[in-house]
Design a protein that fits this description.
The structure is a single chain. With about 210 residues, the chain is an alpha/beta fold. The protein has a single domain, classed as 3-Layer(aba) Sandwich (Rossmann fold), CATH 3.40.50. It contains eight helices and seven strands. Strands 4-3-2-1-5-6-7 form a seven-stranded parallel sheet, with helices on both faces. The chain is globular, with a radius of gyration of 18 Å.
Length: about 210
């Protein structure tokens, strides 16, 4: 495991435990010589994470849309800061650079990044493990909702089970390492094999029923 993508809030949240967990994760990954890829900001949990990792000599790479470089106050002490044009490019670049994903507490931006990474795993764009750092039970309401999604028939139980949940930083890194060493034991195969296997349609040709628009 070379680098972990960390999704977390650009705000610190009300509970001190949130920032404490971000700092603990940053320091732990630095000591384990595992790099961090994150959103590139210097504020909130994002800043706490980056500052703690940098203080312990860790590698921290930021990916930030140019339009947010002032609003989110780009962190200028990083090993590298990629400035991209769009949020889509940001998420794709983070996915390219990371071996696994962790979501700390955060708002709708964190949820957006988490669910896109999870969706990409489901449809076969990547097979990297995804984990929640469940600080103070932050993710329990979301997990309860996702169980109701399984019960309603819109999500496979094994896909939910593949979403790793760690109660603390100490259990998080071993959990991710186990998932990387035995990926088949922790995640179901992608839902759409067409995204991971060669297509039977000759290159450059579309199925006869497909109408290509200019």
């Amino acid at each position: 495991m070379t680098r972990i993508a960390v999704y977390c809030g650009a705000n610190a949240g009300h509970a001190p435990a949130f920032a404490d967990a971000a700092r603990a994760l940053g320091a732990t990954l630095a000591r384990e010589a595992i790099g961090i890829v994150y959103g590139g900001a210097s504020r909130g949990l994002m800043g706490a994470l980056a500052d703690a990792a940098l203080a312990d000599g860790g590698e921290v790479i930021g990916v930030l849309p140019k339009a947010l470089s002032h609003r989110e106050i780009a962190h200028h002490g990083l090993a590298a800061l990629h400035l991209v044009d769009t949020m889509h490019e940001r998420k794709a670049k983070i996915t390219e650079l990371a071996d696994a994903f962790v979501a700390l507490p955060g708002g709708i931006g964190t949820m957006d990044e988490l669910f896109e990474a999870w969706t990409w795993a489901q449809i076969g764009i990547h097979s990297k493990p995804i984990a929640l750092l469940d600080v103070n039970g932050f993710y329990q309401p979301l997990l309860a909702f996702l169980r109701s999604v399984v019960d309603a028939g819109f999500l496979k139980e094994e896909r939910l089970d593949a979403l790793l949940v760690a109660p603390d930083v100490g259990s998080l890194v071993p959990m991710l390492q186990d998932a990387l060493e035995a990926p088949g034991a922790h995640a179901p195969p992608p839902r759409y094999a067409a995204l991971t296997e060669p297509s039977e349609t000759p290159a450059g040709e579309a199925p006869a029923s497909t109408r290509i628009l200019p």
